[in-house]
Amino acid sequence: MNQHQQTKSTYTNKYAFALELGFFAGLFWGTIHWIFYVFKFTKVIPAYLAEPFFKHEFLKSGAGHLVGLLVFIAFSIAVSFIYVLLFRKMKGPWPGMLYGVFWWLIIFVVVGPIFDMVKPLSALTATTVISEFCLYLLWGLFIGYTIAMEFTDERMREPKKVEG
Predict the structure, then answer these.
(1) DSSP output for 96-133
(2) Pick from 28, 37, 75, 83: most CB atoms within 10 A?
(3) Lowest-pLDDT range, 32-46, 90-104, 116-130, 142-156?
């Protein structure tokens, strides 16, 4: 049995896959957000998603940053579940990128300013807006394309390795 036949007969549990992917997406991109904050690419604190539930001063502390990372991981898990349930058969990188942009719009334009998670776009610096947009774009790409690779035949489009 060759490698392709083994792959076709293997069943991926979509819920376990979404959980694992969401965890690592949240951990990796949440850490990147923290790095952006430390190096002042963004003024949005790492714990912005936890803003409605904790005092702002706590969220600016080291423990608050950790809480923010954990909340971003939980958010990424939920978003991964939604993507797996609704869009897992979509191919290519574009659906994931659009998904990331969709969540950026929800957080930074619709919900975030209402719940004081983030300031309105007009009150944020250009560097912050661009950094956050790019972060969400890449985060969505990471989630969407990883799921596309697992649940479609995207692997078949990859160049074959020449053994020799």
Answers:
(1) HHHHHHHHHHIIIIIIHHHTTSS--GGGS-HHHHHHHH
(2) 83
(3) 142-156
Q: Is 163 inside any structural domain?
A: no
Residue with tokens 């969401």: 22
Neighbours of 123 (CB within 10 A): 10
Does residue 22 surpass a pLDDT of 90? Answer: yes
Residue 25 lies in a domain: yes
Contact between residue 116 and residue 52 where contact means Cβ atoms under 8 Å apart: yes
For 50, the domain range is 14-152
What sign does the dihedral 51-26-65-39 (CA atoms) show?
A: negative
Determine, yes or no, domain membership for 7: no
Total of domains in the chain: 1
9 found inside a domain: no
Place of tokens 């990796």: 28
Does residue 151 carry a pLDDT above 80?
Answer: yes
Question: What confidence category does residue 152 fall into, taking pLDDT thresholds of 50, 70 and 90?
Answer: confident
Instruction: Tell me the two tokens of residue 149.
Output: 């690779």
